[in-house]
Amino acid sequence: MLPFRAMSSGDAAATIRQTPGGPSSLALLRQGVTEILSRRRLIRYLVQADMKKRGSDTVLGNLWWILDPLLQLIVYVILVAVISRGKGIEDYPLFIFVAIIPWKWFSSVITDATTSVMRAERLIKQIAFPKLVLPVSAASAGVVGFVWGLAPLGLLLLLDWQRLSLMLVWVPVIAAVQFVFTLAVAILVAAGNVFFRDLGNALGHALRLWWFLSPGLYSIETLESTKFIKDHPIVADLFGLNPFAVLFEAYRAVIYGTPDGAVGTAHPPDLIALGSLLLGSLAFLAVSITFFKRVEPEFAKVL
Predict the structure, then answer these.
(1) What's the pTM?
(2) What is the spatial distance between Cα 93 and Cα 86, in angstroms, rounded to a whole number?
């Protein structure tokens, strides 16, 4: 076997740009979608294997999906609610927990998907199969973890039963929009990490920064009330372009209500913002699948 040699950025760019006479982007997109739909059993098997591996590798297994968000909640409540007096937000633990769960879903999927192709190096060199199922299975396994993470959120709602409402039926709809966006990012980073090996390290820092730039620990209303945002309204518009600004606000609308409202003020999400995010995510997903299929033939050579 040839010794491993990490590709330079120039080598990777040259590899990605080759095959000028290859299939069209539309043909690659159609092929990618067909592969995902026709390999549903393989994806289901990979998801089950991934969940089984998580359960066997650690003592607590999937219970970490419950414990980890709770530990994060304790840390953020101490740092923000106690030290900063919670910024005047009622039921602050529930307020931030509504954001912690979907963010953990996204960040864990992206972390797993980044190395999903590289982890299957031996399989890729031995068996011909659509590699697109690897990041898709990583994203699908994240859905199971998300459901586990909803358990402690449900407990918080039972303790604050006045916030229970029929608006909770919107949660699967919002989660579906998030899944489309997450899948698009997962496919893109899975392919990119094959050629740019530092991508995994950079993503850890990028995800951390993304979280703090998203309205997870604070509300949009709190942000807009600051002097800096009032003096620079364009910054508020840029914050609004963050997909998780839309998602966090949507989850909070149907679970928590409004920060300055009375208990039990849950309401439907902003359907225009959510619909726009869905359309943008679908377009992003199409680009990600096309890019993945474009560079897929080079995986065996690079790995």
Answers:
(1) 0.81
(2) 9
